[in-house]
């Protein structure tokens, strides 16, 4: 499977980020808690440089908490403050804002020592597409004023958004690297919806998802689809899922494509339970 996706607006986004960094006190890097390594854009460190950075693991409600704790410990070992959040519900946002204010405290203290009037902390929200940047800002605002959608490539412009009296956020487009050499990473981005569904081979991604679930989370499949056991091959497994969900063609044959789409969708929306795809070695 080869996925190469770098639309023109993302190349422009990199330039926009670089141009606005001089106005920024803190960078908030938003990662998908299910794929905290795969959703970490290797370009961001290069672009951000020595700006203070705070990590937010979004969609923590969809991720396996055991792995989330391990990944958070890894980031903290690197000196990066990290908060597990749920942008839609607002869980964890208070801690995230505290980390942002702490990261900017030294700079603001220097300003105050020079007699410069205090101002809100200015932060930039960065992350790959569909990781939840606009949902995060909407939750902080308490109103859906930023355009959002559960698909990549919606947020293309940039805008300053005031959050209370102490924080201003710059929303920017998501940024993906120009070439995804590691196709294991590409699979994880595809299956979680970070890249558009029309830029990868669906059958290949579905096969890899089924293989992963069979190996790492078989109990979730048994529980969700009321199975007695996991069949020996993927086709038989999809056949059982299709039969359980009434995915039948004329003549009573299973519609395997429809069964596969149900499995993918239920993985993405968390109905299979809390699942993490990135494991620490």
From TrEMBL:
Q: Which NCBIfam families match?
A: GTPase_YlqF (TIGR03596)
Q: What family is it from? A: Belongs to the TRAFAC class YlqF/YawG GTPase family. MTG1 subfamily.
The cross-references to InterPro entries, in alphabetical order and at most eight, read: G_CP_dom, GTP-bd, GTP-bd_ortho_bundle_sf, GTP-bd_ribosome_bgen, GTPase_MTG1, P-loop_NTPase
Record protein name field: Ribosome biogenesis GTPase A
Q: Which GO terms describe its biological process?
A: translation
- One Pfam entry for this protein is MMR_HSR1
Subcellular localization, as worded in the UniProt entry: Cytoplasm
Q: Which residues form the CP-type G domain?
A: 14-178
Predominant location: cytoplasm
Report the protein's function. Required for a late step of 50S ribosomal subunit assembly. Has GTPase activity.
Cited PANTHER family: MITOCHONDRIAL RIBOSOME-ASSOCIATED GTPASE 1 (PTHR45782:SF4)
Q: Extract the PROSITE patterns matched here.
A: G_CP (PS51721)
| Residues that hold GTP according to the record | 58-61, 130-135, 174
Instruction: Give the source lineage, highest ranks first.
Output: Bacteria, Bacillati, Bacillota, Negativicutes, Acetonemataceae
